């Protein structure tokens, strides 16, 4: 799966599941403040990621994610690792 597909799928579920404004989802935007995420939202996000991309997410992985670009890179790296197995 290429990065453009990952970004498209990710942005689609952010808009659908978290009612995000599509225009506010930019690579450099702060993900937590843009989506107004609380701890329960992160749990929901883990489930959505696992369903859409087929890999297990460690909740502590989110500590290193600040921007949407960080999030896209995280998903891309995990998908790539999964495809290599």
Automatic annotation (TrEMBL):
GO molecular function: acyl binding; acyl carrier activity
InterPro entries per record: ACP, ACP-like_sf, PP-bd_ACP
Keyword hit for Phosphoprotein: yes
Top-level taxonomic group: Bacteria
UniProt keyword Glycoprotein, yes or no: no
Record-annotated Carrier domain positions: 1-79
Database matches in Gene3D superfamilies: ACP-like
Alphabetically ordered keywords of this record: Phosphopantetheine, Phosphoprotein
Descriptive protein name: Acyl carrier protein
Organism: Chitinophaga terrae (ex Kim and Jung 2007)
């Amino acid at each position: 799966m290429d990065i453009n597909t990952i970004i498209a799928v990710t942005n689609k579920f952010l808009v659908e599941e978290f009612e995000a404004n599509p225009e506010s989802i930019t690579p450099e935007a702060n993900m937590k403040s843009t989506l107004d995420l609380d701890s329960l939202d992160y749990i929901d996000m883990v489930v959505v990621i696992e369903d859409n991309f087929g890999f297990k997410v460690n909740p502590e992985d989110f500590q290193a994610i600040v921007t949407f670009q960080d999030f896209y890179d995280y998903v891309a790296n995990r998908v790539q690792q999964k495809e290599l197995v």
